[in-house]
Amino acid sequence: MSTSICDFCSEPHVAWRYPAHSFVAYAVAGVVGQSVGDWAACKVCHELIEAGDRSALVERSLNRLLETHPEMRPDEAELRSELALLHGMFFAHQTGAAAAPVYRRAYQCD
Hints:
Layout: E1 14-18, E2 23-28, E3 31-35, E4 39-42, H1 43-51, H2 54-68, H3 76-93
Antiparallel strand pairs: 1-4, 2-3
Helix pairs in contact: 1-2, 2-3
């Protein structure tokens, strides 16, 4: 069983992975956040990516974030902009087409 979530909207049912180079996602007050390797995508986000609908992808991501964290609603415009930038960095670092996710077993039987 996978514990992966969609890197775009946090949906718990990952259906695809997108190969990508690692990149620095943000640097704020001396704290650096890095995106490491492939990105996971749920079925809906995958369909939006494949359709080239980046704006709908941002809106889905934003709406899911605000559902989980309604206290962030006053920052909605800034969050939308930041998500668009982050997604843009993903697309700039994407290295190939979507593929089935790779699941690793937490244990091994011999």
